[in-house]
Structure formats: C-alpha cells, structure tokens
C-alpha cells in the first residue's frame, strides 16, 4: 500500500481485509473491513482474534467511521485500526484521538502538512480514545 501511514511500533498487517459478513462466516480471518454504516459492535466478541480493522471513509464528510473506531477502542480493542479512502490531512488528528493508528488515504499526504496538523493543538478539551489529558483536568485536577 503506497500511501500507508502508521503510528504503531509493530509490523504492518498485510493480510487482505474481509467484509464483516465474510469475517462472521469464516473463523480464520484476522483482518476485517468496515464499510460506512456497518455496525462495529458486531466485532466485539472477536476482538482478541483481530490484528487489523480497516474502516472505510467513502467521503471526507462521512463521519460514521469515527464512531466505529471509538466503539472498538472503548470495547478494549488493542490491534490496529486503519482509516482508508477519502481521508484528509485535516482529519488525522481527530481520527487519532478516536483510536485510528494507521491511515491509507486515497490521495498522498504531504508529510510536512501532516506533522503541522498533528502538532497544531497543545491541549484537548474532552476525553477520547487516546491518552491525552483534557485541559480542564490539568487545571482543576
């Protein structure tokens, strides 16, 4: 995958991702793809078997994938969550906060623009799937 960006220390998972329906019908897949509108909660009983969950973004303005990533992280999933499709550099900071740790954008991402986008904000204002401490908690303990 030419445009793959990863923020993990482990090796990239290269097994092709199967659909949720195919995954639920076969016991040996370790990589699954969630299309926009599919329910990520179907995967919760199988999280210990999955190495990669790829979530498709058909258009940059379709935010359902953010919820899918957050659901999986809150359910305890520790494996790789990859955003693929119409993923823009402006979204990556927020996607990382929701639990995404790799990206396969349809168009190449400029590395300087990505670094600037990820470093843009010093503080966050709410809890998320990442470990960032909200500014209110820093101020008030």
Describe the structure.
It is a single chain. By secondary structure, the protein is an alpha/beta fold. It is 29% helix and 17% strand. The protein has a single domain (5-140), classed as Rossmann fold, CATH 3.40.50. Helix 3 packs across helix 4 (111-118). It is globular. The mean pLDDT is 90.
Radius of gyration using CA atoms only: 15 Å
How would you classify the helix and strand content by structural class? alpha/beta
> Can you tell me the CATH topology?
Rossmann fold
Query: Helicity, in percent?
Result: 25-40%
* CATH architecture term: 3-Layer(aba) Sandwich
Shape: globular
Q: What is the tally of beta strands? A: 6
H/I helix tally: 5
**Could you say how many structural domains there are in total?**
1
Question: What are the SSEs and their pairings?
Answer:
Elements: E1 5-6, E2 18-19, H1 20-25, E3 31-34, E4 52-57, H2 64-74, E5 80-85, H3 89-98, E6 102-105, H4 111-118, H5 135-140
Parallel strand pairs: 2-3, 3-4, 4-5, 5-6
Antiparallel strand pairs: 1-6
Helix pairs in contact: 3-4
Key phrases:
29% helix, alpha/beta, UCP030820, 5 helices, 141 residues, Rossmann fold, 6 strands, 17% strand, DUF934 domain-containing protein
Summarize the structure.
It comes from Sphingomonas naasensis. The protein has 141 residues and is of the alpha/beta class.
């Amino acid at each position: 995958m030419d445009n793959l960006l990863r923020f993990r220390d482990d090796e990239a998972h290269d097994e092709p991702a199967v659909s949720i329906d195919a995954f639920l019908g076969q016991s040996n897949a370790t990589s699954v793809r969630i299309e926009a509108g599919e329910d990520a909660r179907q995967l919760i009983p199988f999280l210990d078997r999955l190495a990669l969950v790829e979530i498709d973004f058909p258009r940059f303005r379709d935010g359902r994938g953010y919820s899918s990533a957050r659901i999986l992280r809150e359910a305890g999933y520790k494996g790789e969550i990859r955003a693929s499709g119409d993923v823009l550099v402006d979204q990556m900071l927020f996607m990382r906060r929701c639990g995404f740790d790799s990206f396969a954008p349809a168009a190449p991402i400029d590395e300087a623009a990505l670094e600037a986008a990820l470093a843009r904000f010093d503080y966050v204002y709410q809890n998320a799937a990442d470990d960032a401490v909200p500014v209110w908690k820093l101020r008030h303990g």
